[in-house]
Amino acid sequence: MIDLPPTQLWAIILVLAAGTYLIRLSFLAFAGAAARLPEWTLRLLRYVPVTVLPALVAPMVVWPKATEGETDPVRLAAALAALGVGALTRSLFWAIAAGFAALFGLPELAALVAALPPGR
Amino acid sequence: MAEAAPESPPSAAEAPARARRGARRAFRDGAAISFSFMLVGAPFGLLFGAVATEAGLPIAETMALSIVVMAGAAQFALVELLADGAPALIALMAAFAVNLRMLMYSASIAPHLAEARLRTRLWMAYFLVDQVYAASIHRFTERPNLPLREKTAFWLGVGGPMFVVWYGATYAGAVVGARIPEGWSLDFAPAITFIAICAPMLRTLPSLVAAGVAVAAALALAWLPWSLGLPFAALAGMAAGAGAEIALARRGLRPRPA
After folding, report:
1. Cβ neighbours of residue B142 under 8 Å, at least 6 residues apart?
2. For the segment B62-72, what is each residue's pLDDT rounded down to a tens digit?
3. Disulfide: which of A8, B138, B237, B245 matches B210 by Cβ 3.0-4.6 Å?
4. CA of A115 to nearest chain B CA: how many angstroms apart?
5. B148 in the Ramachandran plot: left (φ > 0), alpha (ψ -120 to 50) or beta?
6. Is the dihedral of CA A53, A57, A59, A62 positive or negative?
7. B154: helix, coil or strand?
8. What is the pLDDT of residues A100-118, one digit of tens each?
9. Do residues B152 and B29 make contact, with C-beta atoms less than 8 angstroms apart?
10. Predicted TM-score of the model (pTM)
11. Torsion of CA A12, A17, A20, A26, to 10 degrees
12. Which residue of B has its CA nearest to A108?
């Protein structure tokens, strides 16, 4: 439970807000100078979108916090579904739809199969 | 073409109207993409509202986090740590570490917005979240001659609707206290969004190499506290991608679609 005095709580929120905004603004504030960055920096920056998000996601997929770090087949399947459909269709929407279908559909399917009469 | 001469300056007169139409179209395109993000953002916001209020955070403070901080993963990290009784400083540092990736987004998008006025860049910075960054960098790189006005309109089109839904969902979650069934795995919603954002971008061999190295490094460094491995893993991936690009260029190969 969080039982901090309101003043301290608000101080934490405002510091986080200001700091986060400054992180976002950092290079944007000097956007004119950023256009003149050396070629090798621009080459590195081209790979920001395909490295930061995968690096953020990988541990979430393999060791989810919600299962206390235990690899979960449903989450793994949902991640692979989003990745596969996204790579094939090049569509953000279908990738999200596939991931969600697997995430919510697979447990339902498993429950359904488990409820089937044995010895079919 | 002598008859056409009197009509020659219409482009000057029509230019503002055409620019307005272009900006409106860019905003609509952005909003259409925003819709996909809402699919995930809404349940995730609901979850945040519910988790935060259940952790003992009053509604006003919960809303303030979603409005002035507006960074889902960092918000969860902060609430989780504070609820665990971690010192405020540690909780703050963890949240900042999670947000450090935005520094790289800022550096990566800045060259595309070089002509924007400072005032414009000041409000654009507020919307610099994973989804807005990823959708925009994709569009800006694919269309290098995009007018600035269409860039900012697209940016707002992706960010605006999504942010409003995030605020609303947080409020709904906080008020209803939504008893979310355990089996729903809503905690995984952001992971799916991030994968879905990335998958269509893995088009060239260097980008596949970059992503592969980043994933491997992130898993190897996952033992570090507060997601501190993330910036290092990302840098390793970026270096690998750039290296692969140079190696391909030396062999006279242009990075082709994978």
Report:
1. none
2. 999 999 999 88
3. B237
4. 17
5. alpha
6. negative
7. helix
8. 899 988 888 888 888 887 7
9. no
10. 0.76
11. -120
12. B183
Most A CBs within 10 A among B37, B75, B195, B221, hence the mutation to make, goes to B195
In order, the DSSP letters of B66-124 are IIII--HHHHHHHHHHHHTT--HHHHHHHHHHHHTHHHHHHHHHGGGGTTS-HHHHHHH
Residue among B50, B40, B7 nearest B193 (CA): B40
Q: Work out the number of other CB atoms within 10 angstroms of the CB of residue A41.
A: 14
Which is nearest to A56 in space by CA: B194, B197, B131, B72? B194
Of B188, B230, B237, the CB nearest to A78: B188
Mutate which of A24, A45, A90 to disrupt the B interface (most B C-beta within 10 Å)? A24
**Cβ contact B63:B174 at 8 Å:** yes
CB contact under 8 A, A56 and B245: no
Amino acid at A120: R
pLDDT at B226 over 70: no
Cα separation, A85 vs B33, whole angstroms:
17
Instruction: Tell which residue, B223, B221, B210, has the closest CA to residue B258.
Output: B210
CB neighbour list of residue B162: distance below 8 Å, 6 or more residues apart? B34, B37, B38, B41, B131, B132
Strand positions, DSSP E, chain B: none
Q: Does the ipTM surpass 0.85? A: no
Interchain CB distance below 8 Å, A52 and B101: yes
Structure tokens at B167: 């605020």
Radius of gyration of chain A (CA): 22
Write out pLDDT tens, residues B127-177: 999 889 999 999 999 998 999 999 999 999 999 999 999 999 999 999 987
Q: Are B195 and A30 a contacting pair at CB < 8 A?
A: no
**C-alpha distances in Å from residue A82, one per residue of A28, A86, B238:** 31, 6, 23
In A38-91, where does DSSP find H-type helix? 39-45, 48-62, 73-89
Q: Which of A6, A23, A75 sits opposite B100 (nearest CB)?
A: A23
